[in-house]
Amino acid sequence: MPVKKKELFFLSFFFVLLLGIIIRIWNIEKNPSGFFCDEASIGYNAYSILHSAKDEYGNFIPLFFKAFGEYKNPVDIYSTIPFVAVFGLNELSVRMTSTFFSILTIFVFYFIGKKLFGSGGGLLFMLVYSITPWAIHMARINLEGFNQLIFFISLAILFQIKFYKNQKLVYLILNNLLLGVATYCYFPARIIIPLFVFINDLIILTQSKKIKWPLISMLSYLLIISPLINHLFFGQGLSRWGQVSLFNEKNINPFFKIIQTYLLHFSPDFLFLKGDIGMTGQFITRHSIRGIGELFLWQLPFVIVGIYFLMSSKLKIFPAVILLLLLFPIPSSLTADRTPQATRSIVGIVPLTLLTCFGLVYFFKLIQKIKNCLKYFIVLLLGTTIFLLFFNFIKLFNNYPSYSSDYWGWQYGPKEIVSYFLSTKEKYDELYMTSSFNEPDFFFKFYDPENKCNNCYVGGFDRLNSSRKQLFALRPNEFPKIKNKIKKTIYYPSGEIAFYIVDFGLR
Predict the structure, then answer these.
(1) Which among 231, 319, 359, 419 has the fewest CB atoms less than 10 Å away?
(2) What is the value of pTM for the model shown?
(3) Per-residue pLDDT tens over the stretch 103-152
(4) Domain that includes residue 481, residue range
(5) What is the b/e burial string over 102-124, where b = at least 16 CB atoms within 10 angstroms of the residue's CB?
(6) CB 123 within 8 Å of CB 172
(7) 408 lies in some domain
(8) Residue 258, domain member (yes or no)
(9) Domain annotation covers residue 110
(10) Radius of gyration of the chain from Cα atoms?
C-alpha cells in the first residue's frame, strides 16, 4: 500500500525531531566529561530558589544573581528550577535546561520554514538546525543562557515574519517583547539586541505603512529591559565587562584588534574547518569540538547562495537576517581574546542557519528545472555528503571527552572527589580537595548542598598537620607520590591520572 504524502510528512517530521533530540541528550552527563563551575553555580542557585526562594547570598527572588565577582542572568537560573525539581540537583538537570530550549528551537525553525515556504520548507529548516555542530554542542552545556537566547531570538524572527504576513500590531509587539527577554539571557545579548531592535524597528518603519507601530513596539522593548538598564548603569551589571573588556588591555591597538577579530568570525577556519577550539592561540577546549568548524563545510556554498537568494527575493525578513549576521561578531571582538569565541558569538547560529536554509531552498528550486535522472543524482549526492559529514561529526563528538576534561576543559573530578569524601568523612578530622579548579569551593555546595561533609575543605598539601587525621585529593604534581597512602586514584576519560586521594593519618 503506497505511503500518502501526509503520512510521509509526519514520518519525516518525527525522524528529524527524534534525530535532533537524541544527538542532544545522548550521554549528556558524561559528554562533556566534567562539570564547570558556571554550570554548578546555575544549578545551585536554581536549587536554592526552589527550596528557600533565596539565592546563595540570601537575596529573596533576585532578578540578577551575584556569582564569582559578576552577575549571572536570571533567565537561565529560573528556567533551570523545574528541571532541578524533577531530576534533583545534578549535572543532568542543569544541562537538560539548555537541551530543552534547543529542542524548542527546532520547532521554531520548523514554523519559520513553514511560514515562508510551506511544510517542506519547515522540515528543511528544522533539519539544518537539528544537525548543525554549533547548535548541538551548545545544547549539551549550560555555562550561560545560550539556548534561551537562541530560542527567543528565533521566536522573535518568527513573529516578525507573521507581522509581515498579517500586518497586526500584536506580532510586532511580541517580536520586541521576546527580544527584551533575550536581552536578559547572556551578557553579549546586551550589546547585540539593543542595536538590533533599534535598527530593525527603523527598517520596519520604512517598510510599513503604520508609522506609529514600530515606535509602540520599541517602547515595549524599553519597558521590559528597564530593570536591566538600571542594573547596568546604576548597579554592578558591568562587572563582567570589566573582567573581559579589550579596553583594559595595554599595548593593544583597540581599533586594529576589533577589526581583525571581527573579520575572523567570517573566516573559513572558524566557521567551516576548525571552529573555536582550532583557532590560533586558543587553548580552552570547552567551547567546541576539535576537527570541525562551527558549521559543516557543505553549508558554505549554501550560505553564499542564501545571501544571493534573499537579496534577489521579495522576502521582507532579509534585512533582519543580514543585520544579525553583521552584529553577531561584535561582543567577542570587544574582548581581549585574539580569536572568536563560539560562546560570545552564539547569536551567529541564527542568521547562518537561516542563510543555509535559504540557500537550500534556492538550490531545490533550481534543480526542479533539471531532467529527472540528473535531478535525483544531484539530490542523492548532496544527501550522501551531508550524511557522511554528519557521521564524521558523531565520531569527533564521541572522542571529545578524551581531550577536554582537564583544567582548560571541563575540569573533571570534583564530583568523584566529593562523592568519595562523603563516603569516608567519618574516618577523618579534615578532608581537603585541591584548589586547582575555577571556584573550587562551589563544588561542595553543588554536590553536597546539605553540607553533610562539614569537615571538608579546599586546600593543598600545605595544610598537612601531623596531629590530625587528614585526607587529601590532589593532582599528581601537587605532592610527592606516596604509594602506600593512596586510597583512590581518579582517572580522566583518556586514561591519564587526574587525582590521587591520599590518606595522611596520625603519626
Answers:
(1) 419
(2) 0.94
(3) 999 999 999 999 999 999 999 999 999 999 999 999 999 988 999 999 99
(4) 414-504
(5) bbbbbbbbbbbbbbbbeeebbbb
(6) no
(7) no
(8) yes
(9) yes
(10) 25
